[in-house]
Write a structure and sequence with these properties.
Mean pLDDT: 93
Strand order of the largest sheet: 1-2-3-6-7-8-9-10
Number of strands: 10
Number of helices: 11
Shape: globular
Order of helices and strands: HEHEHEEEHHEHEHEHEHEHH
Structural class: alpha/beta
Low-confidence stretches: none
Length: 364
């Protein structure tokens, strides 16, 4: 019944735009964790047989340390992608006219649960909050307000390292854009930080965006970021996850206008793309696992573009589904390798179902 209601909702949306199709959106994107070295071939099959027929034209791969960096081999994940494997992904994407964009989480997301990720593990002096120790057993909420660690944006050595990673991964992916993440930054401008203490959090955040943007611009590359830190979580009621409660939201007026904002909302189809567009920023709307919400977000993007002024319309760039797992886990779900556990109720709200609903196969 849920699948039928989603299907009829999609028909309603698409019938309401007889002169419009998903193909009319400048960005028709898919974002997922880069495959492990053992799943490259199956992911290329997915590009050829699933992304291409749906006319996906943008693929964001969250690489982070899943690449055999030569500039900083100490930061590689175990069994990371080789350059030759990345070139296979590049060739498969290029064959279908898919713009391939790598992501490395910058600023925030330098830890997850009870583990620090490679940058702060190898370079602990980059940590914005070295006094916050990683717990043996992670729980939220916690007294330290620890969700994910951040690096200190004013540390004198951090950008030499991260920009060498950025340059190398962008060269390997032969890309004209880079996704820096920058979402869910809870630690920034901490009072006890000898460099950041007492500074304006919005200015710190915007300063980091500018620094990354300017570095990329030297080689003609565009910066993409998630949009949550630019939304006032309190005034909007959106809250601390999809919005900011630590005053970084004022950075929306300070960041460069040529970045791409990836505006993610998962529990409600909030209409914040209008907010970003009115600030002069290009924006794409990003669902995750709820097909009904995704269809409404798609309808909204069509509405915005069809009713916008000539100045505003180009800022509504389209839609990108996000998948918050590695490629292998998603492929197992998508192709039915992962079966529901005994007693587990069927769930329509999955990334695979959202993908099928949002991007039906488009006849050539």
């Amino acid at each position: 019944m849920k699948r039928l209601s989603t299907f009829f909702l999609l028909l309603f949306v698409l019938n309401g735009f007889a002169q419009t199709s998903i193909d009319s959106l400048p960005v028709r994107g898919f974002c997922i964790g880069a495959p492990s070295s053992g799943r490259v071939e199956s992911f290329i099959k997915f590009i050829n047989e699933e992304l291409a027929p749906r006319h996906i034209n943008t693929l964001v791969l969250r690489v982070d340390f899943n690449y055999q960096y030569t500039s900083h081999p100490e930061l590689r994940d175990k069994d990371a992608l080789s350059n030759a494997q990345v070139k296979q992904l590049v060739a498969a994407s290029r064959k279908h006219g898919i713009r391939l964009i790598p992501q490395i989480n910058l600023l925030g997301h330098q830890s997850w649960a009870g583990q620090t990720t490679n940058l702060l593990k190898v370079y602990p002096d980059f940590d914005e909050t070295p006094w916050v120790k990683m717990p043996e057993k992670y729980a939220w909420p916690n007294p330290d307000g620890l969700y994910c660690k951040s690096y200190c944006p004013l540390h004198p050595g951090v950008h030499k390292v991260v920009f060498e990673l950025v340059d190398e991964v962008c060269d390997a992916f032969e890309t004209d854009a880079f996704h820096a993440g920058m979402d869910e930054v809870f630690y920034i401008g901490e009072d006890k930080c000898p460099r950041c203490g007492g500074r304006d959090k919005a200015e710190l955040y915007a300063g980091e965006v500018w620094k990354i943007r300017n570095h990329l611009a030297e080689k003609g590359r565009q910066l993409w970021i998630w949009g949550d830190r630019l939304i006032d979580g309190k005034t909007t009621g959106i809250g601390m996850w999809e919005g900011s409660m630590n005053n970084t939201h004022r950075a929306v007026d300070l960041v460069p206008k040529d970045i791409m904002v990836c505006d993610w909302h998962y529990e409600r189809p909030d209409k914040t793309p209008v907010y970003f567009a009115m600030k002069g920023l290009s924006v794409i709307t990003c669902p995750w696992r709820m097909p009904n919400n995704a269809v409404l977000q798609l309808k909204d993007i069509f509405d915005y573009r069809n009713t916008a002024t000539a100045d505003m319309k180009p800022r509504y760039q389209g839609m990108m589904q996000t998948v918050w797992s590695d490629a292998g886990t998603f492929l197992d779900e998508y192709y039915g390798v992962r079966k529901p556990k005994a007693g587990e109720a069927p769930n329509n709200n999955t990334p695979a179902n959202c993908f099928r609903t949002l991007f039906p196969v488009v006849g050539k």
